[in-house]
Amino acid sequence: MGEDFLPLKGYDHVELYVGNARQAAHFYEKVFGFRPVAKSGLETGIRDRACYVMEQGVVRLVFTSAYRPDHEIARHCALHGDGVKSIGLSVADVEQALAETRKRGATVLQPATVVKDDGGTFVTGTIKYAGDTVFRFVDRSRYGGLFAPGFRAIESPACASVGLAAIDHIVTNVHLGEMNFWANWFERIMGFRNLLHFSDKDISTEYSALMSKVVENGTGKIKFPINEPAEGKKKSQIDEYLDFYCGPGVQHIAMNTADICATVERLRSRGLDFLRVPDTYYDALPERVGEIDQDYRRIRELGILVDRDDDGYLLQIFTQPVQDRPTLFFEVIERHGSRGFGIGNFKALFVSLEREQALRGNL
Ligand code: FE2
């Protein structure tokens, strides 16, 4: 394998465009345990958008709303609803990241932009990804201020974390027939490699199916599964997403925890809703995955899923969509050696997903 032409240091942040950033920030603080860190808006001299930066572990989410209707952010929200606009990737050299990806065919939407304030120098640049989603390269190595120039600290009482530590992976849904295009795009443009491939034989129920490919970057730190719908008797969950998001976009963000039982217990007590698999799932579980460090009874009570592969096992759980449209949701994951995505859970999960989809009249 050649040299990594796009060395990525990790995720910098994920920015969501939302209808009401103040209320979104409140939800992510009170329910998800994110700490409000910084804000920009009218009071900091930014006239077109309000922006809240929230952190937990090394996960950094940014919520942004437009002040007026004739604004790109407002149009984005009108079309897609609340959703992920930008995936921020940390690089040592934004100029070089743009040059390397442009050379290979990326569409540069924002050339390297240098902003300075008392905190130092902050550099970003943006390329187009699927649909209206973008990748933003960020170099904050010479910046010591809050999130970015133009932001002010949010004074807020201590916020109780639920133990979310880092982003594990970010999943994109694309249209039928586009998965291979995007998997190749990651290889060609970003220097990622193809890690896994799930066919509709692996991921199907009686009614609907999907196909998935997972790409990862040179260091293996950054993983992007890409889903496309497959032909089934009824409408696939991916079709439902594409319908309601009005195009491709981020389906879920998975976040790691060191203690999934404690994390899920806290999230449930704060009112977060999770997908429930049929109770029969748990009857066969000890036999399927063998011995684990966690108590099976507690796993069952909390509705956590377990899967094992050659490298170890993982525990995971999926939230319900976090807005009215059945689009973006979150996953909480605890890994014990396994580098997979819980394929052994897919069938049970999709039966549950379809039950919810049917309740929405979308199956
Ligand atoms: Fe996932």
Describe this structure in words.
- With 363 residues, this protein is of the alpha+beta class.
- The protein folds into two domains: 144 residues, 2,3-Dihydroxybiphenyl 1,2-Dioxygenase, domain 1, CATH 3.10.180; 197 residues, Roll (2,3-Dihydroxybiphenyl 1,2-Dioxygenase, domain 1).
- It is 26% helix and 35% strand.
- The protein is built from ten helices and 17 strands.
- The strands form two sheets. It has a nine-stranded mixed beta sheet with strand order 6-7-8-5-1-4-3-2-9. It has an eight-stranded mixed beta sheet with strand order 11-12-13-10-14-17-16-15, with helices on both faces.
- The chain is globular, with a radius of gyration of 20 Å.
- The N and C termini lie far apart (44 Å).
- The site of fe (ii) ion has 6 residues, from strand 10 and strand 14.
- Fe (ii) ion binds next to strand 10 and strand 14.
CATH secondary-structure class of the largest domain: Alpha Beta
* Major sheet strand order: 6-7-8-5-1-4-3-2-9
The biggest beta sheet is recorded as: 9 strands, mixed
From the N-terminal CA to the C-terminal CA, the straight-line distance is 44 Å
CATH topology-level name of the largest domain? 2,3-Dihydroxybiphenyl 1,2-Dioxygenase, domain 1
Note the overall shape: globular
Mean pLDDT: 93
According to DSSP, the number of beta strands is: 17
